[in-house]
Amino acid sequence: MGSSGVNFSALRIKKGPTTQCVCLVDALGNHTMRPCLSSVVKIQADELTKEDFKGVKWLVMRYGIYNLEVIHAVIQMAKEEGIFVSLDLTSFELVRNFRGPLLKLLQSGDIDLCFANEDETRELLRDDENASPEAALEFLAKHCQWAVVALGYNRCLAKCGREMVRVPAIRKAKTTDAIRAGDLFAGGFLYGLVKGLSLEECC
């Protein structure tokens, strides 16, 4: 990554255990991940400084109740520096169990871009009898400048302002393992935004 120009000057290395995760994959490539975060070394909110945000255009985060204090601190600093904030909903179980804090975060208006998959949107709109991926996209777009709902091998929905696109998935390859597929998709979408591509091209 360094040879590609990635700047590691703000990287912090702390002593202690890192996350352990069991990944279970079925014959269709669907997966479940079981992380253990109990003894993991974590960055603390008071360790962050404005220097960490110099030259940054996007802050990319994953939703997690275990580091909510850090999330709020990072977002506040990012907004003070005029940085866009991207949030991935991470897991339908996190959305299910900690939906209240997530709704507060989205409704704050501080999230510029939100990524979600079908399972996560189902939990997000669980009180809505008309819940659908399209309804979830509209809900996210009410609070975020960009909203993206990934529907796996079916398609992707994205909205920015009044523009909405439906982009079909590429079906040429057989899925054997979808672990981190959402992260790869989000990375590609963000790359497109940074490069000024259209909403459809970002998908």
Automatic annotation (TrEMBL):
SUPFAM superfamilies noted in UniProt: Ribokinase-like (SSF53613)
One annotated GO molecular function: kinase activity
Alphabetical keyword list: Kinase, Transferase
Pfam families referenced in this protein's UniProt entry, alphabetically: PfkB (PF00294)
Protein name: Carbohydrate kinase PfkB domain-containing protein
Top-level lineage group: Eukaryota
InterPro entries xref list: Carb_kinase_PfkB-like (IPR052700), PfkB_dom (IPR011611), Ribokinase-like (IPR029056)
Domain Carbohydrate kinase PfkB residues, every copy: 3-203
Bilayer-spanning residue ranges: none
Family note: Belongs to the carbohydrate kinase PfkB family.
